[in-house]
Write a structure and sequence with these properties.
Trna Endonuclease, Chain: A, domain 1; alpha/beta; 2 domains; 58% helix; 16 helices
């Protein structure tokens, strides 16, 4: 009997060591092979397929939302156009004035509860919108592409039909947000683009359409540069705000590289900025100068273009274009320098602050004076 008790106590002792008091031993979990687990969950391929389907549905929702927004905008612009037409007709025929339009606004507020956008001021803008474009039916489709806030900027910032059409077309074709449209108007884009860029004879021959793709003056006020900025400051700022710089250049410009390396012989060189222009199908090299243009600057730029055309340009691409972007320039000096160069180059100027209203008005008046004879000729014909 003692032997049995001792044997029992011995087994109890061993058991207590294996399972210390106060701790529970979890039951053993049977591990599935990795392949079996992948099969049970559907595997990476199935997850990837599901994710692709999810993203497709998200894209459908976003596309539908954009289309719905455009449809709403079209209806809104058409409504404002029709209201503007009624008010304009009543002013001409029945002598409506500000008092009557104010009564109309109060009537709409009482009968169209919760509807916004029909204040006396906005009703007058609808009339202005109609009067500004009533004689330009060719723009009817274009008008519906822009939001109302964009039209307000154009109406308040322009005076002539040519100027309004310019901003309408550029805002629609470049898909500018309202903020960018306002910036372009404030920087005098119409006057800057209307001023012909300074192109070399070779550039006009090789790329006849280049005059429509480049500007005489580029507005870089968004860089926030100080008056005494260095070339390195300008370069860094352009890279920092590259998206906005491309917007200023034009939507067909695609960034290729900064301090783009080219090797000629045993020497290494670096081009400040290189872009590719989709419309012109060519590389565009930018050299930056924070001083006035000098004729000798063209020699270095021509050298870079030769290196790009020999060693970088693809067989299907057209000859590269060079742009000297300077802080300022003497137009007569530029004309002399470009007249004899054999490279497709141009000289442009950049401005780091928006022009004052007085300066902008002066430039616009000069431009209007140039356009006036053309308008007279077309009217006389």
């Amino acid at each position: 009997m003692k032997t049995k008790v001792a044997s029992f106590q011995k087994r109890k002792t061993v058991s207590s060591k294996e399972k210390p008091p106060g701790k529970k031993v979890a039951p053993a979990v049977k591990q599935l092979p990795v392949k079996a687990m992948a099969a049970a969950s559907g595997g990476p391929a199935r997850k990837q397929s599901s994710l692709a389907a999810f993203n497709e549905i998200v894209a459908l929702i976003e596309t539908s939302r954009r289309e719905a927004g455009r449809a709403v905008n079209v209806q809104l612009i058409e409504l404002y156009w029709k209201i503007g037409a009624v008010i304009s007709t009543r002013i001409e025929r029945d002598g409506w004035g500000k008092g009557t339009v104010a009564e109309l606004a109060a009537h709409l507020a009482g009968t169209q509860a919760g509807t916004r956008g029909f204040s006396p001021q906005n009703l007058w803008r609808m009339r202005q919108f109609f009067d500004a474009h009533r004689d330009a039916p060719v723009l009817s489709t274009l008008l519906r592409e822009l939001p109302w806030s964009a039209h307000l900027h154009i109406l308040s910032g322009t005076k002539r039909p040519e100027e309004r059409e310019f901003y309408l077309r550029l805002a629609a074709s470049n898909r500018w947000p309202v903020r960018e449209l306002a910036r372009q108007i404030a920087s005098g884009a119409f006057a800057r683009v209307a001023a012909a860029p300074k192109l070399s004879t070779a550039l006009r021959v090789v790329h006849p359409e280049a005059a429509d793709q480049f500007k005489d003056v580029y507005s870089l006020e968004f860089l926030g540069l100080s008056a005494d900025h260095s070339e390195a400051d300008l370069h860094r700022a352009l890279l920092r705000d590259l998206g906005r710089f491309i917007t200023e250049l034009g939507r067909d410009f695609c960034f290729v590289g900064s301090e783009y390396p080219v090797q000629v012989g045993n020497q290494d060189f670096a081009i400040d900025l290189v872009f590719f222009h989709r419309g012109l199908t060519c590389l565009v090299a930018f050299e930056l100068k924070v001083r006035e243009f000098r004729p000798e600057d063209l020699g270095k730029l021509s050298f870079y273009l030769e290196a790009l055309d020999r060693d970088v340009k693809k067989p299907h691409e057209r000859p590269s274009i060079g742009v000297l972007l300077c802080a300022n320039k003497d137009n007569e000096v530029v004309e002399y320098a470009l007249s004899r160069t054999l490279s497709p180059t141009l000289v442009a100027e950049y401005q780091t602050v928006l022009p004052s209203k007085a300066v902008l008005q002066r430039k616009l008046h000069e431009l209007y004076a140039q356009l006036a004879p053309e308008a007279g000729e077309s009217t006389g014909s």
